[in-house]
């Protein structure tokens, strides 16, 4: 399934967020459930319809004539892949748009060697910047931390100006 | 009835012993009878003798008593006679003696009165003199004592004044020192409080400035600036190898 892994990684890069991944997993489970009910045609229709919704990025080349078993196998693999993804928690002081989310995903994808999705948390408490947390690791690159560090290291200067 | 031969032989053999035995028995009875008779007659004789002796003693005692009675009457009579003679003599002597005795006693009493009177006067004068001397001595002693007591009291008062003055001075000094110490302690506490308060105020100001800086900076940025800051911080962390 090496090819599928590449395809799945590409899919996740498009999905970016945890919410998107969870939503897709549920939709894939619906397709799979249809196939298990031995209503092959409905399962195929649902998958193709889902593929259209995601602008073809899900479909490696299945058509109405494809075997339902192949489709279901693919759906299963994709759902399992998405379910087993690591996630990187990103805290921001503003609500990021989709473009910025993808920019961040690309940035982290170049850095991390494992497949992942991003889980965004928005809070103004950090002032700005970013706080990153994954696999038990944590780094605070927030504006609040930067200002705090500055105040700590330049206390005398700050007091002198008060 | 015929006695056995053995018995007859036996009797004949010891007949002399039987005879001797019977003789002894007879002698013994005679002796006893004699003794009884003798005892009886002796007793009667003794009783008779006792009665005779008693009668004689009684008669003799009566005669002695009679003699004693006569002798005593005579002695009393003689004694009365002598007493009467002696009493007459004594009566004559007693009047003279009484008179002399009275005179002597009167003289002795007068003499005693004189002696007592003179002695009393001397005693009184001596007593007065001694009293006067003692009074003078007492007065002198009292005067001296008064002077000593007065001096001692004045000295005590002076000492007391000195001590009081000294104590007052020392107390003033101690009070002064204590007030200075207390004042210094309070001043130190105030300085400490001032320092801690200023430090607290500084910290609060610092905190406020920090909060304002954080909030104002964050809120003053637009989305593009936020995004730029995020990327900048990430790149910087990556460059400094601070990313985990």
TrEMBL record, chain A:
Keywords attached to this entry? ATP synthesis, Hydrogen ion transport, Ion transport, Membrane, Transport
Q: What is its main location?
A: membrane
Where in or outside the cell is it found? Membrane
This protein's name: F-type ATPase subunit delta
Instruction: Give the InterPro entries listed for this entry.
Output: ATPase_OSCP/dsu
Q: Which domain of life is it from?
A: Bacteria
Q: Name one GO molecular function term.
A: proton-transporting ATP synthase activity, rotational mechanism
What's in the GO CC field?
A: membrane
Automatic annotation (TrEMBL), chain B:
Specify the superkingdom. Bacteria
Give start-end ranges for the coiled-coil region(s).
169-196
* Record-annotated membrane-spanning stretches: 14-37
Q: Which UniProt keywords apply?
A: Coiled coil, Membrane, Transmembrane, Transmembrane helix
Task: Report whether Transmembrane helix shows up as a keyword of the record.
Answer: yes
Listed name of the protein? Uncharacterized protein
